[in-house]
Write a structure and sequence with these properties.
Blueprint: E1 5-10, H1 15-22, E2 28-33, H2 43-53, E3 57-60, H3 74-95, E4 98-104, H4 127-142, E5 148-153, E6 156-157, H5 164-177, E7 181-185, E8 189-190, E9 193-194, H6 195-207, E10 212-215, E11 222-223, H7 224-237, E12 246-250, H8 270-276, H9 283-291
Parallel strand pairs: 1-2, 1-3, 3-4, 4-5, 5-10, 6-9, 7-12
Antiparallel strand pairs: 8-11
Helix pairs in contact: 1-6, 2-3, 3-4, 5-7, 7-9
Bound molecules: NADP nicotinamide-adenine-dinucleotide phosphate.
Residues 11, 13-17, 35, 38-41, 61-65, 80, 102, 104, 132, 153-156, 161-162 line the site of NADP nicotinamide-adenine-dinucleotide phosphate.
C-alpha cells in the first residue's frame, strides 16, 4: 500500500501553484495555501503554519516574482523570497519535514556562454535574483542536505497567470490589428518552461525523495525574440489570434528595464532529468500543448 504524503503548498494561486494542484498525485494529502491563508512576508506566520500542519514536504511555489518592481521594493522581495523559505525551513527542521524550494535561473549573472550547472556559484545581478539566491542559502543553512531540494527553473509560462506567453498573445493581437511591429529582445538566451512540465518535475522530485540542487527546464534554447515569434505562430495555429504581428529583434540596451537580466541563463538540466526520470518536450512542442489549453 502506498503511504500518503502530506504536502503543504504555498503560492497555490500562482501559475505553478495552479498546475501543481491540477496534477496532484493520488497518494498526496494537500494543504494548499494562498496569500489569504499565509502571508509569506510574515516570518512568524510561516513558522506557525508549519507547526500547525506538520507536513512531510512543503512545496514553496509562492514568491515575489515581479522582477522589475523588486528593484524598488527590495525589503518586501527579501521577506517573501528569502526570509519566508528560511522560516519554513527552520520550522520544518523541528517537525522532520522536507522542503522543495522553487528557484530561478536569475541567480546567475548570465555572463557565460554554456549552460549553468547546478554546482556553479550563484552571482545574481538583480534584486529579485539576489533575494532568490538568499532564499536558497537560508534553506541550505536551516535543513540537512537530505531534507531540501532546490529546483531552479526558467521562463515559466502556462495557460493562466501572468506570463510572457499570454502577454505576447495580447500584443500580437493588438499590433497586428494596428499594422504595427512588435519589438522583442533577442540578446537574452534561456529556455521557456511550461507549468505542466515543471509541476510534473515537482511531483516527481517528491515521489523520488530527491534532494540537493537541481535544474529543470523544457528542452532546447531560445531568445525572447524566438519565443515571441513562436507564440504568434502557435497562437494562429490554435485559433487564439487571427494573425501574428511582425516581430523585430532588438537589443537589451534598446529596451531598458529597472532590473538587469542575465544575457545567457540556460540551465544544464542533464543530471536532473536523469534523477527525476523525466524527458521534457522541446519548448516549441510544449508551446503547442499549452496553447491548446488557453481559452479562445
Ligand atoms: N515566472 C517565471 O518566469 C519564473 C522563472 C524562474 C523561476 N520562477 C520561480 O517559480 C516559482 C513559481 O513562480 P510562478 O511563475 O508560479 O509565479 P506567480 O505566478 O507570480 O506566483 C507566485 C505566487 O506567490 C504569491 N505571493 C506573492 N507574495 C506573496 C505573499 N507575501 N504571501 C503569500 N503569497 C504571495 C502570489 O500571490 P499574488 O498573485 O496574490 O501576488 C502568487 O500566487 C517561484 O519561486 C518563482 O521564483 C518563476
Amino acid at each position: 500500500m502506498t503511504k500518503t504524503i502530506k504536502i503543504m503548498l504555498t503560492g497555490k494561486d500562482g501559475q505553478l501553484g495552479k498546475a501543481l494542484v491540477e496534477r496532484i498525485p493520488a497518494s498526496i494529502k494537500l494543504v494548499a495555501l494562498g496569500r489569504q491563508e499565509l502571508d509569506l512576508s510574515d516570518k512568524q506566520a510561516c513558522h506557525n503554519a508549519v507547526l500547525e500542519h506538520r507536513p512531510d514536504w512543503i512545496i514553496n511555489a509562492g514568491a515575489y516574482t515581479a522582477v522589475d518592481r523588486a528593484e524598488s521594493e527590495p525589503e518586501l522581495a527579501l521577506a517573501v523570497n528569502a526570509a519566508a523559505p528560511g522560516a519554513l525551513a527552520q520550522a520544518l527542521d523541528k517537525v522532520g519535514g522536507r522542503l522543495l524550494q522553487i528557484s530561478t535561473d536569475f541567480v546567475f549573472n548570465g555572463s557565460q556562454a554554456h549552460p549553468y550547472h547546478p554546482d556553479q556559484p550563484v552571482d545574481p545581478i538583480s534584486v529579485y535574483g539576489a533575494t532568490k539566491a538568499e532564499g536558497e542559502r537560508l534553506v541550505q543553512k536551516a535543513l540537512p542536505p537530505t531534507h531540501y531540494c532546490i529546483l531552479r527553473t526558467s521562463w515559466v509560462y502556462g495557460p493562466v497567470g501572468n506570463n510572457f506567453c499570454l502577454t505576447m498573445l495580447r500584443l500580437h493581437r493588438l499590433k497586428s490589428a494596428e499594422n504595427q511591429t512588435l519589438n522583442v529582445v533577442a540578446d537574452q538566451i534561456g529556455c521557456p518552461t511550461s507549468t505542466f512540465n515543471l509541476a510534473n518535475a515537482c511531483w516527481s522530485a517528491i515521489n523520488l525523495g530527491t534532494n540537493g540542487i537541481h535544474h529543470f527546464c523544457d528542452a532546447g534554447a531560445a531568445s525572447w525574440y524566438d519565443f515571441a515569434i513562436a507564440i504568434g505562430n502557435a497562437g494562429v495555429a490554435a485559433g487564439i489570434i487571427d494573425q501574428s504581428a511582425n516581430v523585430i529583434p532588438i537589443t537589451t540596451s534598446e529596451y531598458p528595464t529597472p532590473a538587469k537580466r542575465p544575457g545567457y541563463s540556460l540551465l544544464d538540466c542533464t543530471d536532473t532529468r536523469n534523477v527525476l526520470e523525466l524527458e521534457p518536450n522541446h519548448w516549441q512542442k510544449e508551446l503547442a500543448i499549452v496553447m491548446s489549453q488557453i481559452p479562445k
